[in-house]
Automatic annotation (TrEMBL):
UniProt name for this protein: histidine kinase
Entry's EC annotation: 2.7.13.3
Compartments where located: Cell membrane
Species of provenance: Candidatus Anaerostipes avistercoris
Keyword Aminoacyl-tRNA synthetase carried by entry: no
Keywords in alphabetical order: ATP-binding, Cell membrane, Coiled coil, Kinase, Membrane, Nucleotide-binding, Phosphoprotein, Transferase, Transmembrane, Transmembrane helix, Two-component regulatory system
Pfam families registered for this protein in UniProt: HAMP, HATPase_c, HisKA
TM stretches of this protein: 100-119
Boundaries of every HAMP domain copy: 121-173
Reaction(s) the record says it catalyses: ATP + protein L-histidine = ADP + protein N-phospho-L-histidine
Coiled-coil blocks: 161-192
Domain Histidine kinase: 202-417
Amino acid sequence: MDQVARDYNYRIMISDPINQMVYSSEGEQGVMYKDLKNILQNIDKIQSQLNEQGFAVTTNTSQNQGTSINLTGYLDGQYTVIINTPMESIQTSATLSGRFTAYVGILLIIGGGIAMYIFSKQFTKPIEEMAGAANRMSNLDFDVKIENMGEDELGRLGQSLNELSGKLEMTISELKTANNELRQDIEQKVQIDEMRTEFLSHVSHELKTPIALIQGYAEGLKDNISEDEESRNFYCDVITDEAKKMNRMVQKLLTLNQIEFGNNKVEMERFDITELISNMLASNQILLEKGGTHVEFDEKPVHVWADEFMIEEVVSNYLSNARNHVSENGTIRISYSRHGDNLRVTVYNTGKHIPEEDLDKLWVKFYKVDKARTREYGGSGVGLSIVEATMKAHGKDYGVFNVKGGVEFYFEVELDKK
């Protein structure tokens, strides 16, 4: 009993049926003894409450201890038990309890806040990833993919964004392709219009001289300017010669026009280029011998892949160019060399070098380094343009160099790998 009183700060007093004290936790000298004794003496005042509830709670105020709470009850129906505790201790306990509750509440709030932050981060992280992915997609970056998607609504949304990214990338790629094709079509149309205008301008310019000559000599014949037979025959020869030149030029222009406009498609076939060149030399033998030109060509059969008809035109133009510019009693040499998977055919002629500033201009339609000499041998200034268009259609290299003693033109064709 004493231990309980000390542990819980209680004052306990027990009296017998005649209100004689039989136990007091403080003894008769205790501070609360008199207060408890007074309660015991005035127990009749709370008798009705004791009878109804079996216990009674009262308060007591003293000068020494202040306000205290008393719990009065019966033990075994005979003994009266009074338990007293100061109000101050209850208030202290209540204060401590309030503080403890406050501390626990603060800790719970802090812990709850941390838990909510962690949970919210786990919840908002995929949303932030999807927002970042959507932002990159808006900047046309479709390489972004949302990883580690779950099976919930956010996971399905992420999967939908990935699918949307792929479809947008494909759609934009198709739009870019279509836009590029449209741009190329427009550029090609503009280029074709420019080529047509240029073609008509050049044709008009080139035909002006032969037409003027034909007109002049024809009017001379009509007006009987020259009465002797020899002069009339000369007039007729000039008209015939100019008409032939016009015909050759028109034919070459038509060929060039077909190649440049893509109407003359490249038909790849396997053939012996040595045989082709040999036949070309044989057909030009009379013209070559007439000028005292020495031809060197001693190559073994070589099979290549190309459009045989177009390559024949290239060889013809190179050979004609060499024949017209070779020095007197000079040499034309045709040779082969291998360049990777291609065969390079070189046509060399002795003679004057081409001015360096004119080398790149040789391929331009109607460009003539020596206009007087070009007209003398009937050149139109179109042959090398045909070579350029043909080699571009084949996707192969071509060119011209000034070398020791003369000029060297070349073109390449694909070697047969068998």
